[in-house]
Amino acid sequence: MSIPSFGLGTFRLTGQAVIDSVKSALELGYRVIDTAQIYQNEADVGQAIAESGVPRSELFITTKIWVENYAADKLVPSLRDSLKKLRTDYVDLLLIHWPAPGNGVELAEYMQALAEARKLGLTRQIGVSNFNIELTRQAIAVVGKGEIATNQIELSPYLQNTKLTAFLKEQGITVTSYMTLAYGKVLKDPVLAEIANKHKATVAQVALAWALQLGYAVIPSSTKRENLASNLLARDLRLDDEDMARIAKLERNGREVSPEGLAPIWD
Ligand SMILES: NC(=O)c1ccc[n+]([C@@H]2O[C@H](COP(=O)([O-])OP(=O)(O)OC[C@H]3O[C@@H](n4cnc5c(N)ncnc54)[C@H](OP(=O)(O)O)[C@@H]3O)[C@@H](O)[C@H]2O)c1
Q: Residue 150 carries which DSSP code?
């Protein structure tokens, strides 16, 4: 199992905005695209990929099952619908979007349905998103150790999630950091700005390089070609130990996303 370290996020983007973002990203060399049923942009993403001419075999596509499709009789049919929109026979990674405790479908039921989707060849890998330690443990108990490729979680210099990431590392589960830029908030940070100046880099590159150096996968989104291009260069930036230590101190439990009814009790 492996999760590519650098991808493109598509949350909040629909219609021409997402088509342009995905096409620009693919032209610039991105090959990993993160979407979700709830983003309502799978068909646009599918169109952008088709128009880009990039062969499917070069791409790594992730989608996420929305909570209304968690029941055993709904998950696979909803995935087939997503695949039709994405114009592909399989996704590379399929995630449960939120644990949604109390939503009426037990974790064991949706994790089994997720595993079934993989058996059917509709996804190469499976994973979870927004799971805390306890729920990740439960998910592992259902599908087996080594079967969960990633836990995609909110993680930025302002929300470093150290307990959960330590647990995931111990379990061999790749951390995917979403909102690594805290939806733009960390871009105004003075410490990150100093580190960026030192390396003649951008603040966004510093935040992304920090996450990459900790071994996390990142999926920043942008509507701007120049940001898409410069973000990708974060892969070439090497932060030193002092930079990493200064960023570690920026932790402030800065959570941006915690929808009631969907989110677990955070660690
Ligand atoms: N699993 C989940 O529950 C979950 C939840 C949230 C997000 N996600 C995934 O994670 C992805 C990333 O999160 P996100 O899109 O919410 O937030 P993000 O990547 O932290 O930030 C995106 C914002 O930062 C700006 N930006 C990006 N690069 C920039 C740069 N170099 N300089 C200045 N501004 C820059 C973008 O504006 P411009 O367009 O102006 O560049 C956009 O407003 C999502 O797209 C989605 O795929 C998953």
A: E
CATH 3.40.50.2300 fits 8-182+216-221, yes or no: no
Residues catalogued as catalytic: 39
Q: Please tell me if the CB atom of residue 220 comes closer than 6 angstroms to any atom of ligand 1.
A: yes
| pTM of the predicted protein model | 0.98
Rounded Cα–Cα distance for residues 114 and 181 (Å): 29
The encoded tokens of residue 82 equal: 């997503």
Cα 137 to averaged position of ligand 1 atoms, centre (Å): 28
CB count, 10 Å around CB of 242? 10
pLDDT digits (tens, 9 = 90+) for 64-74: 999 999 999 99
Domain ranges for the chain = 8-182+216-221
Q: Are 42 and 66 in contact (CB under 8 A)?
A: no
